[in-house]
Amino acid sequence: MDPRWTALLDAARAAHEATPELRAFCPFPTELREQPGDPRPDPLSVTLQEAPGATTSPWQGFRDAASAAGPIARWRDTYRHTAIGEELHRHFGCFELLGQDAPFGAKDMRGFLVYQRPGYHYPPHHHPAEELYLVIAGEAEFHLDGHAPRRLGPGESVFHPSGVPHALTTHESPVLTWVLWRGEMETRPVFSPAFSDQQASPR
Fold this sequence. Notes:
The protein has helices at about 5-20, 20-25, 45-50, 60-70, 85-90; strands at about 35, 90-100, 105, 110-115, 120-125, 130-140, 140-145, 150, 155-160, 165-170, 175-180, 190. The chain is of the alpha+beta class. It has a single domain (about 5-190), classed as Jelly Rolls. The chain has a 7-stranded mixed sheet with strand order 1-3-2-4-11-6-9. Strands 8-7-10-5-12 form a 5-stranded antiparallel sheet, with no helix packed on it. A hairpin with a 5-residue loop joins strand 7 (about 140-145) and strand 8 (about 150). Helix 1 packs antiparallel against helix 4 (about 60-70). The relative contact order is 0.20.
């Protein structure tokens, strides 16, 4: 196992132990299996290394470990087949650390590193899995259908219920997040219809 993966795993475990919202969402898996897999390079891995986003001291190790692992990660190709897939992937990307298609196999949760460049709106989407976002570096505006947008920075989190449309907007800063899934984790995200009238438009 590449030491960059073990360093990132240690950082994720430390964040879990230090963050009540993560602990309440799911336990950190104690039974992990190493899963070999070929990297799927993405130009965003270079951007992540060069401009990962500002953070605060508790999250510097996690940010730096995620940046270091980017070049050897298997970046996901979700939405690549859609009309906006290529444009989206120039600004948004993620790779899995824990779970099904990850260096460390886990049964009851999936854990992803998600990175988005400044000035991009990741459109409304939904999935059966329940989801928790924790901001590691940078900041972004998080949208959840039926709720006002929330602008979050390092150490702040947001929960997305199963099947409820949500979206992500970056402004001046990129954002790097740690994203956990639980529940029905087999189904990939799909784009959602526009938010209801209760949802404020992104700025």
